[in-house]
Amino acid sequence: MKKFKILLFTCIILFSVTSCFEDMDDNIIDASTEEINDFVWKAMNFVYLYKSEIPNLSDDRFTTTDEYVDYLNSYASPEELFESLLYLPNEIDRFSGIYSNYFDLQNALSGISLSNGIEYNLYYVPGSDTEVFGAITLVLANSPAENLGLERGQIFRAINDENLTLNNYVNLLSSTSYTLNLADYDDNDTSDTNDDDTIVLSGINASLTKVSYTENPVHKTEVLNVNGTSIGYLMYNGFTNEFDNNLNDAFGEFNAAGVSELVIDLRYNGGGSVQTAAYLGSMVTGQFTGEVYSKLFYNENLASNDTNYLFTNSIDGGGSINSLNLSKVYILTTNRRTASASELVINSLKPYIEVVVIGENTVGKTQASRTVYDSPTLFSDTEANPSHTYALQPLIANSTNVNEELVPSTGMVPDIDLSESVTNLGILGDVNEPLLAAAISHMSLSGRSSTFTEELPKLREISLPISALQQDMQID
After folding, report:
1. Is the distance from CB of 259 to CB of 231 less than 8 angstroms?
2. Of the chain's two ends, which shows fewer C-beta atoms within 10 Å, N or C?
3. pTM, whole model, 2 decimals?
C-alpha cells in the first residue's frame, strides 16, 4: 500500500499559497484570535477537499496584507471563520470540525471518551408529543453500565426521579452522574403502537457515573451453527487502529471454527481508520491480495498524495491477516449510525464479492479527514504552536472503490430494509435478533432473492445529535 506522504511544509512552502501579497508572518499577529484565524485560513486554503468551491479560499483572494488582516478580524472567533469556509454544510460537508483542545480530539479519535457505558435511543411516549422515554441499545463491555448488569432492551422513563420530556432530557442525560429510573413498557400484546399502555416505572434504579473509557470496538463475536452451517457474527463498533490485532484475532476464531457465512454488524459503527477498513476487507476475503481495495483523491494541492489502499495479507507490525476467503458477506446497518469507514467497506467490497446489506439506509459519508495542527508540517502535533491548542478535522480526500465510485451522499440503500424496534430489540448475536434473523433467512434461500418482510412496530423516535467525530473516516 502506498503510504500517505506527510508533506513537510516549511514556513516558506506553507505561506507560498498566499505569495500574491507580502509575507504576512512577520507583521500580522498581535492577538491570539488573529493568530488562530491565520492558522485556520492557511490550513483550509492548503488541505480542504472543497477549496476550489470556496471563493474566500482562492490563492488570489487577497492582494495586500492589510486586506488579509481585515478579513481575519471580521470574524469574532476561529469557529466562525472555519464555519464560513465549509462547502454546503447542510448537504455536502456535514462533517468537518474545529476543536479548541486537540488533546480531547486525539483521545476521541483513539476511542477514549467520557462514558458510563450505555448507548440508547429516545422515543415519544405513545399518545404524547412532549413526554419521552429511552431504550438501551448497547451496553459497552467492562463499563459502569455492564458492571451494574444493565442490558440492551431495558426501558427508562426518568432520570433522578424526574420524568423525561422534550424540555429536560438533554440536561438530565448530559450530567456526569445520574440515576437511571427503569420502567416497564406494555405493548398490550399487539403490534399496533397506538394501543400501547402507559410506561410505568418499575422501581428498579441504576446509578451511573461517566468515566474515562477506552472502547474495544470488537464488541461481540459468535459462531452459530444453523442447519449445519457455521455462521460467524461480529459486532464491530469502530475502525480504531489500536485494536487491529483484536479484529484480526476475531477472524482467527472464525477461521478455526470453519465459518462459511459471515455477518458483520456495523449498525452502531460511525467509522474510523481507512487503513483498518482495508484490513477488514482483506479479512473477509483473502483471494484479492495486491488488488486495489479503495482509493483516496485529494485536492489540487495534495494531488501527489492520491493513494490506493490494497487488499493485503498482513497488518503493519502485526503479522499475517486471518482471511476467510469468502465470496459473500452480510452487513447490518442503521440510518444515523452506519457511516464513513463502514460505508467504505460496503462500497469497496461490492466490486469483488456479493455484499448483502440488511437494515436501514446508511448516512452517506464518502470523504476522509485528518487532524491538522498549527505546525510547520500541519499533520503533526510535535511542533504545534504552543500558544493555543486549536486543531482542525477537515475533509481532505474523497474515498472511492476500485471503480472510482463514491458512496452516495444520500447513503447506501439496503438490500433488505429492516429497522430496529424498541418492542423487540433482541439480544445481539442471537439467532432470533431481527436483523441477524433476516441474514440467516437469506442464507437459507441459497442466494435467491429474500422474501423477509417482517414488519416490526415502530414508535416515533427523537433524533439525537451525532457529532462529526462519531461519523469520521480518518487517514492514518
Report:
1. yes
2. C
3. 0.89
